[in-house]
Write a structure and sequence with these properties.
6-stranded parallel beta sheet, two-stranded parallel sheet, alpha/beta, 2 domains
């Protein structure tokens, strides 16, 4: 394997490892504002590090690669599983740094999304990724956005050290139940995934508390199910290790360095000192010196996310959405991503190779996820054991409204903000515009249209000054047929994309691929 890596050029490695990374969809806008500074290259913008998306939603402005496609695990759904006969290769830390810097200088990318197969073992893999990030931040002074995919069962020390170098971390949940993991990913366990997830969450909360912010990142005043007192994860000694070394001094624990030097497989040159910093001494220094000279180092400031595969196993939408809600409640995730299963391997435990990726189902789950986080809905509001799956022809909000027609039509000049959020076609901003605008007078349908309300949906559920937009029968079957007809084309486009391929950095933009 070592000879093979030496025989491949960096361009050939990039072709292999960029293609192997395209099935991981868990990357999005950064959520981090960090200005450029003298002596450093790059910055991060909270407005959206990902300016362009492929047809399946994947970001193309991050350099999205695997550190390695070698893997000792044999997950049945994965293209890089150990039993597959594939060309295997691994980037050295120096090669990843070279790619990031050269692509950034050419304005191809704005940051890095780094994942990896499990090379040798989780400890070895995470140390390799740590060394890559350490070099980028300290030797190359790269100040741009970095998203790292943590490896389950890696040592907590490595997870923590990487957390001070990365902007976002994520650990793939993969599948929503323990039984599914045993069936398709026998080397992984829910405990091995959730333990580092909790560690990251606790450290994020600790950092946020030290700078005077709420411990939670994802709290929405409109959703009582995901905000406030639900965040009750136990934290011991939350202030005992708040202050940590700066990025320039964040080093690897000595025990791991000895392992690599003894085995002769140290992937990083000895130019970087790897002595363990004296954290107790540093804490004493912080408490005994003026506060304005020291500040806590950000820990995963853009939060953490995860990904679940949709359609590889038999879980219904209710199970997936309930798992999503619990992840938000217990681990304060920034996002839960859904990945429609793409058949890559032939296996009796998997759907057949001619199975079409359930893209429309994935789309409905994303819409439901949005309702959970921002619209005040609960998983049990949207689905139940008796109705465990979404109607793929209707968005979840319309589906809910049709099952609660006793609440409609709603008078927009009187309904409160929380009730307006329940109306199909009215979003967070437009609901607030309605509340603010009606203080100066009664609203009309023309005024609503100017505010951005999607009247092709809302017209079935609202009145203005006691009148509906048209004479409409408030009957479930009738409105369902109308809404399905309105949304048929967009649903067809989601289920039948023109291409499934991941965009190349060098695709012809004139073809509209980046729009």
């Amino acid at each position: 394997m070592g000879d093979l890596r030496k025989s491949l050029s960096i361009g050939e490695k990039l072709e292999i490892l960029a293609d192997a990374a395209k099935y991981d969809v868990a990357c999005t806008s950064s959520g981090v504002n960090r200005k450029g500074k003298s002596g450093s290259l790059g910055n991060s913008c909270a407005a959206g590090i990902c300016h362009s998306f492929a047809s399946d939603g994947r970001c193309v402005s991050l350099l999205k690669i695997l550190q390695s496609n070698e893997c000792v695990y044999d997950c049945k759904y994965c293209l890089n599983r150990s039993s597959n006969d594939r060309i295997r290769t691994t980037f050295t830390p120096e090669e990843v740094c070279q790619l990031v810097m050269e692509f950034y200088r050419r304005n191809y990318i704005e940051g890095l999304f780094l994942s990896s197969g499990v090379v040798k073992n989780p400890t070895y893999t995470m140390e390799l990724m740590y060394r890559t990030l350490y070099m980028l931040r300290n030797q190359y002074h790269f100040n741009g956005y970095i998203h790292v995919k943590a490896i389950p069962n890696a040592p907590g020390e490595l997870i923590e050290q990487i957390g001070y170098l990365a902007d976002r971390m994520s650990i793939n949940m993969e599948l929503p139940t323990e039984d599914s993991l045993k069936k398709l990913a026998p080397h992984k366990t829910q405990n091995g995934i959730l333990k580092p997830m909790e560690q990251i969450q606790n450290r994020i909360a600790a950092y946020r508390l030290t700078i005077g912010k709420d411990a939670r990142m994802e709290r929405s005043a409109s959703n009582r199910y995901l905000s406030g007192t639900i965040f009750e994860s136990p934290r011991k000694n939350i202030a005992s290790n708040i202050y940590t070394p700066s990025r320039a001094n964040t080093q690897l624990p000595v025990s791991y360095e000895k392992t690599f030097t003894q085995s002769g497989t140290n992937p990083l040159q000895s130019s970087i000192s790897l002595s363990q910093p004296d954290i107790n001494s540093l804490q004493h220094q912080v408490t005994s010196t003026k506060a304005d000279k020291y500040s806590p180092v950000p820990f995963v400031p853009a939060g953490q996310s995860t990904q679940m595969i949709i359609g590889a196993t038999s879980e219904n939408d209710y199970q997936l959405l309930t798992t999503t809600q619990r992840l938000y409640q217990q681990f304060d995730l920034k996002r839960v991503f859904y990945s429609a299963y793409v058949p890559l391997n032939e296996d009796s435990a998997l759907p057949s190779l001619d199975t079409t990726p359930p893209l429309l189902r994935e789309h409905r789950l994303y819409q439901a996820d949005w309702l959970l986080r921002y619209y005040g809905f609960h998983a049990d509001d949207l689905l139940s054991a008796d109705k465990p799956n979404f109607n793929v022809f209707l968005d979840p909000k319309c589906d809910w409204a049709l099952r609660h027609l006793e609440l409609f039509p709603m008078e927009v000049n009187k309904a409160d903000y929380a009730d307006l959020l329940k109306v199909p076609g009215i979003g967070i901003k437009s609901a607030m515009r309605i509340v603010n605008s009606r203080r100066s007078g009664q609203l009309t349908f023309d005024a609503l249209k100017k505010m951005g309300i999607v009247l092709k949906r809302a017209k079935y559920f609202i009145t203005c000054q006691g009148k509906m937009m048209y004479s409409i029968r408030i009957q479930e079957d009738f409105i369902t047929r109308q809404l399905i007809g309105e949304d048929y084309k967009s649903s067809w486009d989601v289920e039948h994309p023109t291409t499934y391929k991941q965009l190349s950095l060098f695709d012809d933009m004139k073809k509209g691929a980046f729009q």
